[in-house]
Amino acid sequence: MKKISILALSAVLVAVSCKESKTDIANATTEQAVAEHAGETFTVNTENSTVNWTAYHKGGLNPRFGTTKTTGIFSVENGNINSGSLVSDINTLTTDPAAVDPKISEGKTSSDLDSHLKSEDFFDVAKYPSVKFDITKVEDLPAGTASKVEGANKQVSGNLTIKDKTVNVSFPAKVEVANGKVNFVSKFTINRQDWGLAYGTEGSPKDWMISPEVDLELNIVAGI
Question: What does the alpha-carbon distance between residue 179 and residue 216 come to, in Å, rounded to a whole number?
Fold first, then answer.
């Protein structure tokens, strides 16, 4: 009976340790030189653009999700993006009410989670009000590269700065430039621990219950 219980417990732990992947895994490396602006400048339309985020408890359980607003520019030359910068104002971070059920969260609401994420426990917006992404390279996506983004055609690399830490990340994206407009679509996963983004001290039980994975989905529209 004991052996059966141990096997059953092992099966449960394996099941909850994995979540279905709906995003590409961003490759992370050290900070790189930012690409120089050249060509025409396209300005991000904040109201028509979305940046969605999803965070999880361990094993992909109890996902929390929401949005932030983003400003920025892209530089386009010969029909291709060659550089750009996106800035998300963390003061605009909003958790979807559907992500937090007060009945099972000790009465806490999505607004409570917003305040928690903006506090010194995580982003500390009083000191670090924004997250910035500066493009370092845009290349054609190698033939045969699998991506969760339908129609992905580019590999985009950039310096992602969260609080006082900058890490270069690379991920597939679908980039379209036509009729005076840029459409930039990507969905990828980062490891928040690469930026030292933690709840409490390293190894704290509070932080251990939170998955290091954070999914980001960008749907950016920019125009001249």
Answer: 27
Q: Please give the Cα distance from 175 to 81 (Å, whole number).
A: 8
Burial of 12 (0-12, 13-18, 19+ CB in 10 A): exposed
Taking residue 15's Cβ as centre, other Cβ atoms within 10 Å add up to 9
Q: Quick one: average pLDDT of 166-175?
A: 98
* Alpha carbon 63 to its chain's center: 14
User: Which is nearest to 28 in space by CA: 190, 182, 156?
Assistant: 190
Q: Which domains does the chain have, with CATH numbers?
A: 22-223 (2.40.128.110)
For residues 54 and 63, give the distance between their C-alpha atoms in angstroms, rounded to a whole number.
Answer: 6
Question: Closest Cα to residue 170, out of 202, 197, 145, 143?
Answer: 145
Q: Could you give the CA distance from residue 92 to residue 169 in angstroms, rounded to a whole number?
A: 23
- Residues 204-223 pLDDT 10s: 777 888 999 999 999 999 99
Model pTM? 0.90
Residue 165 has which token pair? 């830490």
Structure-block tokens of residue 106: 């000790």
For residue 20, which amino acid is it? Answer: E
